[in-house]
Amino acid sequence: MAKPEPVNQMKCTFPSCSVNEALARSVAASFAAQLNPTCEEVSDIKCAVSEAVTNAIVHGYRDSIGEIVMVLKLESDRTFTAEIRDRGVGIPNVEEAMRPLFTTDPENERSGMGFTIIENFMDSLRVVSSPGKGTRVIMKKKLSMLPLRK
Amino acid sequence: MTTAEKTLKSAMKGRTLIIWLDGDIDHHSARELRSRIDTKVFIQRPDELILDLSRVCFMDSSGLGLILGRYAKAAELGIRFKVANPTPEISRILDLAGTQRLIKIENASLRTV
Fold first, then answer.
1. What is the ipTM of this complex?
2. Chain B nearest-CA residue for A107
3. pLDDT tens-digit series, residues A116-130
């Protein structure tokens, strides 16, 4: 089978203010809309993006404000990719952070389910992090088969 | 407009306090929502607290934290706690966290105020 080709791509940057969580998930949902996703697929994408952006805000930058970069891609095989990058504190132990219910912030009622939700709602999740340098969260979802909107 | 910026709709029915959450529940709105719910509970001192989720458009793990936190607080105060009418999207999140093992989730028609 031919290698999937890039169809569309966008990149946006925004400060790590919590009001931008809604902005980021709306942008991701609008971008994915050109593939005619189902309502459930849109809802999955919104939730997964919201989790990653919230992580960057709450954990990556903690009490400071930093820049979050979101890169969205669509490929010809109907794969949607979202990459959320921060240059915050990083995650010392990614495996531990990805465990269901693991949280470093129980006082603020963080449920520790963010990565678990992304893993369940998307097809793949990759987390690359270096302490002191930041974190990249890359998630992919192949949308159900419907023709691409020309 | 997020939920936090609006007035929370609620009603006392006998000794039961019903709160209708609406809009988006994320990390941004959860903090204020938490204090508004807790204030209502503190003032009303009900025997039972029901959070109705039928009007919630979006919820992520921050909403889960909010619900589990209210459950813990209610238990501390000896208040029975229920979640009512989650949408299918919200039910998936509640199921992922095994919430139904702790919290009674019901689908009932609660008369709105």
1. 0.90
2. B69
3. 999 999 999 999 999
**Do the Cβ atoms of A22 and B93 come within 8 Å?**
no
Question: Cβ of B65 and A109 within 8 Å?
Answer: yes
Determine if the pTM surpasses 0.90: yes
The domain tally of chain A equals 1
Report pLDDT digits (tens) over A23-49: 999 999 999 999 999 999 999 999 999
Yes or no: domain B3-106 corresponds to CATH 3.30.565.10:
no
For chain B, the first-to-last Cα distance in angstroms comes to: 20
Find all residues with CB under 8 Å of A133, minimum gap 6, and list them: A87, A90
* Position A86 in a domain: yes
- Please report, for residues A34, B9, B79, the alpha-carbon distance to residue A150 in angstroms, rounded to integers and kept in the order given: 9, 44, 56
